[in-house]
Design a protein that fits this description.
The complex is a heterodimer of chains A (444) and B (377). With 444 residues, chain A is mainly alpha-helical. Chain A folds into 2 domains: 238 residues, no CATH class; 131 residues, abc type-2 transporter like fold, CATH 3.40.1710. In chain A, strand 1, helix 4 and strand 2 form a beta-alpha-beta unit. Helices cover 64% and strands 5% of the residues of chain A. Chain B contains 17 helices and 5 strands. In chain B, a hairpin with a 5-residue loop joins strand 3 and strand 4. The chains are: A mainly alpha (444), B alpha/beta (377). At the A-B interface, helix 1, helix 3, helix 5, strand 3 and helix 7 of A face helix 2, helix 3, helix 6, strand 4 and helix 7 of B.
Chain lengths: 444, 377
């Protein structure tokens, strides 16, 4: 038998005692509300800490901040399976691998399925045996007019390609392969007697002709990279989950039947008591906001990008996050008003935070969203949080730029107000139930 | 058997736990249906770009025709927004909230230039290369004509053809539903967390009575975990039926395989829930911890959109051992294996790993549930 001892008092009893304690001063309710969380640091650590970490990890998807004017060339992972081993196939392989990141993929069907299942390469091209011979015959035949278009199309051997859907990178590599082969084909069509080696050299020279590229100037004062901007939008997810659940726990502790009845009988005006509960949850909001903001400021996260940005714009972006905390606060209140307990609040917060994040567009780029999703997003507070953050970033100080920012904040506040009003209504209905000690229809 | 029946009834009658566990797969999959249906089409969508439509552009031989050709028809590459001058185009890109990848302009000397937006677009970052490749093609054709005066450029044939090497065509939509099913499987671990936490002495009156009772711990723990597993698996089956037949998501005729993965996955996550339940935390914190870890692990199964998918893939490549410890990712891989491979051996290997993980986690739960001395009971 072990001699391990467990904590003598069950946790739910502790919570009730903290909320039920007779206030020692005018702000006793406020302190009791905060003690609920301070004495259980696991709760904030889980709801704000763990989910905040997700935001940090998501920032890893962004590469290093490019230097001013630097063009970051995309190098998709490309696998060429060469069954031909000819001059043409080797030249094509060299060309594609120069523009991508070569990876090895076996040639068996199982290896190819493996590569597809594990997204080992964005683009896989299989060059069939006899490809060069077929290619030359079709191209040179075209050049001396032996074949009509239909026959030519049938005669031209084709590469078998697998384009991964995870990004547009596969499509880009396919475009490059077609460009190179088209140049080679055109050389042979123009001069059917030309040496293949010379045609490939010329095709390579032509294929290496690239458009001159430069980077559009960022508006002055805007952050150098996308990380912190992304993070400012993403924080709506951990804030929704964390504040909704944690504020819900505070509300639940004070609004649950017995505690509420005793507090109402205590010599503290209800308005003052409500004010203190509101203040306790406001402190929670600010603390949660500071925590997730500090996470984003970490030097290895987005901190380095903040240095070059306009302090005013970043302050406005941070202010947008702070205003957003009103939404999960109202959601927490609404959840408790609907009768959810601590366990129910966990599920409620998790589902709602995911729903608002997905539908508001926190996790998906606009360009990858359907029109329906974009329209639906307009009815999500998370969408307006994103709008506020973006507007803050490009604000110039004119009314034309301040207006959309303030408008987005106003809509966030409006969402919070509507949710809180729904919570008040639900509370009022519940207070009239027999369980709460109010009037029922049986008592007439 | 009595203990099993009793645990089953107790857990099923816990309205809060049952309701949320039941709702998770349904709500989550509905969300994904709304958010990601049509994603496969979106990936192949044309790229938004601004073109400076000035005198230099119109004077560039063949450029406007090339742009017109690639911005119309079935095989459309670009969606073009015309701007009267470079300043306007620059403004559209800089303040377009990332809509436009960049703008094309022709310098007074006749050189075609592409000015790229500086923003990163994780998962869609090759859009700039697509625009550049279109212009490259124009430049190369122009150079070819210059090098071969009088040559007739015939319509080139197709040089590549897309083939399907996997059992079913690769689909990003399906990937997200697999992530969602993995996450839902993690979340139904709350049955085990609730059930096992209730058995802990000092956690509830039932737990206190069990602590002083004569039943061996395994005879209490095993039926409770078994009951939690039955409810978890049942909930997931309802979720799968909903996804397949109500939402109409196609799994390539591999529903039986998916059901088998859900069965083993539910065992692993039930064991996970039991292992969490023996931690010395309050009930609310246990539920929160279970949900928090599920959310975090699901990040590495690509739950949170294209960026998360990239992160999950790169993590799986860099640290495969981490995926073996992550039931959400293991389930995702197993689903995808069943979907992609002709045979089931790859999925079977993953299921064996998942079963081993379930055993280890169950062992941890059993260790945490060993008989304790309680001076206060």
């Amino acid at each position: 038998m072990n001699t391990f001892k467990t904590s003598p008092a069950p946790a739910p009893v502790q919570r009730a005692r903290a909320a039920d304690r007779t206030p020692k001063s005018a702000w006793g309710v406020f302190r009791a509300g905060l003690k609920l969380l301070v004495r259980r640091p696991a709760l904030p650590l889980i709801h704000l800490g763990l989910l905040g970490l997700i935001g940090l990890m998501m920032m890893a998807q962004f590469g290093s901040v490019p230097a001013k004017g630097e063009i970051k060339e995309i190098k998709p992972e490309v696998a060429i399976i060469d069954h031909d081993g000819s001059q043409l196939s080797k030249a094509l392989r060299t060309y594609l691998e120069d523009h991508g990141m070569p990876v090895h993929v076996g040639s068996s069907k199982r290896d190819l399925q493996d590569a597809a299942a594990k997204s080992a390469a964005a683009y896989i091209a299989v060059i069939p045996a006899g490809y060069q011979a077929g290619f030359e015959e079709a191209a040179r035949g075209e050049g001396i007019g032996h074949k009509d278009s239909a026959a030519r199309a049938q005669a031209m051997p084709q590469l078998e390609t697998v384009v991964m859907l995870a990004s547009d990178q596969g499509r880009y590599m396919d475009q490059l392969a077609n460009t190179y082969l088209r140049q080679t084909w055109a050389q042979l069509v123009a001069d059917p007697d030309a040496d293949l080696g010379a045609a490939l050299t010329q095709a390579r020279q032509l294929s290496d002709l690239r458009v001159k590229q430069s980077m559009v100037e960022r508006p002055a004062g805007e952050a150098d990279g996308e990380r912190f901007r992304y993070y400012l939008g993403f924080v709506a997810y951990p804030l929704t989950a964390g504040i909704c659940v944690l504020s819900g726990l505070i509300f639940h502790a004070f609004f649950s039947g017995g505690v509420r009845r005793r507090n109402l009988a205590a010599p503290v005006p209800p308005a003052r008591m409500s004010l203190q509960i509101a203040c306790a949850t406001a402190v929670l909001c600010v603390a949660g906001w500071i925590w997730v903001t500090l996470l984003g400021f970490a030097p290895w996260a987005g901190g380095a990008e903040v240095a070059g940005a306009s302090p005013g714009r970043f302050a406005l972006g941070l202010a947008a996050s702070l205003v957003y905390t009103l939404v999960p606060l109202s959601l927490g209140y609404l959840g408790v008003s609907l009768g959810l307990g601590p366990n129910g609040l966990n599920g409620y917060g998790t589902i709602l935070s995911l729903a608002l994040a997905f539908l508001g567009g926190l996790f998906t780029a606009d360009v990858a969203s359907s029109d329906f999703m974009r329209t639906l997003g307009l009815f999500m507070p998370t969408h307006w949080h994103l709008v506020a953050v973006r507007q803050a970033e490009t604000m110039t100080g004119t009314w034309a730029s301040v207006g959309p920012y303030l408008g987005a904040l106003a809509i966030e506040v409006l969402f919070a107000a509507v949710l809180a009003a729904a919570g008040l209504l639900a509370t009022r209905v519940r207070m009239q139930t027999a369980e709460a000690g109010g009037l029922t229809f049986d008592e007439d | 058997m009595n203990a099993f029946t009793c645990s089953l009834k107790t857990l099923a009658r816990d309205k809060s736990t049952t309701a949320w566990a039941f709702l998770f797969p349904l709500v989550l999959c509905s969300l994904f249906y709304i958010a990601f249906t049509g994603l496969d089409d979106a990936m192949g969508q044309p790229v938004d770009v601004v073109v400076v439509d000035d005198a230099a552009y119109r004077a560039a031989p063949g450029l406007s025709e090339t742009v017109d050709a690639v911005s119309s028809g079935d095989d459309q590459w670009l969606v073009v927004k015309y701007a009267p001058n470079a300043k306007e185009a620059d403004h559209l890109v800089a303040h377009g909230d990332g809509k436009y990848y960049g703008y094309l302009a022709v310098s007074p000397s006749g050189e075609v230039e592409y000015h790229r937006d500086w923003r990163e677009r994780p998962g869609l970052d090759a859009g700039n290369e697509v625009v550049a490749a279109v212009v490259d093609s124009y430049l190369q054709t122009a150079a070819f004509i210059a090098a071969h005066p009088g040559a007739t450029v015939a319509q080139a044939p197709e040089f590549t053809k897309a083939v399907q090497l996997t059992a079913n065509p690769p689909s990003d939509e399906v990937r997200y539903f697999y992530s969602a099913l993995g996450f839902a499987t993690m979340m139904v671990s709350i049955f085990a967390t609730t059930g096992v936490a209730r058995l802990r002495s000092g956690r509830s009156h039932v737990g206190a009575r069990i602590a002083v009772g004569g039943l061996p711990r395994y005879r209490v723990l095993a039926p409770t975990v078994g009951a939690a597993y039955v409810l978890a698996f049942g909930t997931l089956v309802i979720g799968l039926v909903y996804v397949r037949y109500v939402l109409g998501v196609e799994f390539g005729g591999r529903e039986t395989g998916i059901l088998a993965i859900l069965a083993v996955g539910a065992a692993a996550t039930t064991a996970f829930g039991a292992a969490v339940a023996v931690l010395p935390l309050a009930s609310g914190a246990l539920m929160g911890l279970s949900a928090g870890i599920s959310c975090l692990l699901s990040l590495f199964a690509g739950l949170y959109g294209p960026g998360s998918q990239e992160l999950a893939d790169s993590t799986a490549e860099a640290a495969p051992w981490f995926t073996w410890l992550n039931p959400a990712r293991e389930m995702y891989d197993a689903f995808f294996s069943v979907y992609c491979y002709d045979s089931f051996d790859q999925a079977a290997l993953i299921l064996v790993r998942l079963a081993l993980l379930a055993l280890v986690l169950f062992g941890l739960a059993a260790f945490g549930m060993r008989r304790l001395r309680h001076e206060h009971i």
